[in-house]
């Protein structure tokens, strides 16, 4: 009997799968190498970077406290700057990581999908950085000013460095991800789930939802909740304008 001839389509599928896996491994290695490089560069400056990160709080403390934090855990003062250097490495190298992901996904996209994806990727990076910058320069000083204003005189406000870092990272993530609202709106319109007119008609429900989300993901103080909800309302209007711009382009490409 003659030996069965292997199916060429199965062999090509296996080869294609192996090529995709090798490409994925290459992109992962390059992405991690970029994070490691930034981490190595940032590590010698971790202490100074943490001092800059602590300024929004230290600037609001009374002069008699000498603008200092208190490490309740003996290792807190050591590990907090190291964790900050790692977070900073992820933050700075995020465009490089997104670029590696884009290089892996882009060959499988159509030309009109690439034309829409590139502005969305750039906008998402810019909006995330804008949200973090807004949190650092505007939100954190206002929040700590409110906290120190209402803290009784018999209470000394001097948080642990590790807990302060966790608090600030949560604020950065909350504002960075919340500023992605216009990108999310453009995506749901581009895939045909909603229309710009429906988003406009649902503005009232969206505002209520924004305030609910702000109350959930921010610390339990009115200042940070308002400083997140109000920009998100403006970003919602910006998202409607962006959706109206994307929809005619999508129809023309179709």
TrEMBL record:
Keyword match Transport: yes
Protein's cellular compartments: Cell membrane; Membrane
Family named by the database record: Belongs to the TatC family.
GO aspect biological process, one term: intracellular protein transmembrane transport
Family annotation (PANTHER family): SEC-INDEPENDENT PROTEIN TRANSLOCASE PROTEIN TATC, SEC-INDEPENDENT PROTEIN TRANSLOCASE PROTEIN TATC, CHLOROPLASTIC-RELATED
Function field: Part of the twin-arginine translocation (Tat) system that transports large folded proteins containing a characteristic twin-arginine motif in their signal peptide across membranes. Together with TatB, TatC is part of a receptor directly interacting with Tat signal peptides.
One Gene Ontology term of the molecular function aspect: proton motive force dependent protein transmembrane transporter activity
Superkingdom of this protein's organism: Bacteria
Entry annotated with the keyword Signal: no
HAMAP family: TatC (MF_00902)
Name of the gene: tatC
Membrane disposition: Multi-pass membrane protein
Entries under Pfam families matching the protein: TatC
Protein name: Sec-independent protein translocase protein TatC
A GO cellular component entry from the record: TAT protein transport complex
Keywords for the protein's UniProt record, in alphabetical order: Cell membrane, Membrane, Protein transport, Translocation, Transmembrane, Transmembrane helix, Transport
Transmembrane segments: 28-46, 84-105, 117-147, 167-193, 205-222, 228-247
Quaternary structure and interacting proteins, as annotated: The Tat system comprises two distinct complexes: a TatABC complex, containing multiple copies of TatA, TatB and TatC subunits, and a separate TatA complex, containing only TatA subunits. Substrates initially bind to the TatABC complex, which probably triggers association of the separate TatA complex to form the active translocon.
Organism: Pseudoxanthomonas winnipegensis
């Amino acid at each position: 009997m003659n030996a069965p001839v292997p199916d060429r389509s199965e062999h090509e599928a296996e080869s294609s799968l192996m090529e995709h896996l090798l490409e994925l491994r290459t992109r992962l290695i390059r992405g991690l190498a970029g994070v490691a490089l930034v981490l190595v560069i940032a590590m010698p400056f971790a202490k100074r970077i943490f001092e800059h990160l602590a300024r929004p709080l230290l600037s609001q403390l009374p002069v008699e406290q000498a603008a200092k934090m208190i490490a309740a855990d003996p290792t807190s003062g050591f590990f907090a700057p190291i964790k900050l250097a790692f977070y900073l490495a992820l933050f700075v190298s995020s465009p490089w990581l997104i670029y590696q992901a884009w290089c892996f996904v882009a060959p499988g996209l159509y030309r009109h999908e690439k034309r829409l994806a590139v502005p969305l990727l750039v906008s998402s990076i810019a909006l995330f950085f804008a949200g973090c910058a807004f949190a650092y320069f505007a939100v954190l000083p206002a929040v700590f000013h409110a906290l120190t204003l209402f803290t009784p005189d018999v209470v000394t406000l001097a948080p642990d460095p590790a807990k302060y870092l966790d608090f600030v990272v949560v604020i950065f993530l909350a504002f960075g991800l919340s500023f992605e609202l216009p990108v999310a709106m453009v995506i749901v319109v581009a895939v045909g789930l909603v229309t710009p007119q429906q988003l406009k008609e649902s503005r009232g429900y969206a505002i209520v939802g924004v305030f609910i989300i702000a109350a959930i993901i921010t610390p339990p103080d009115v200042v940070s909740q308002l400083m997140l909800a109000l920009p998100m309302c403006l970003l919602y209007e910006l998202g409607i304008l962006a959706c109206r711009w994307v929809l005619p382009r999508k129809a023309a490409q179709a």
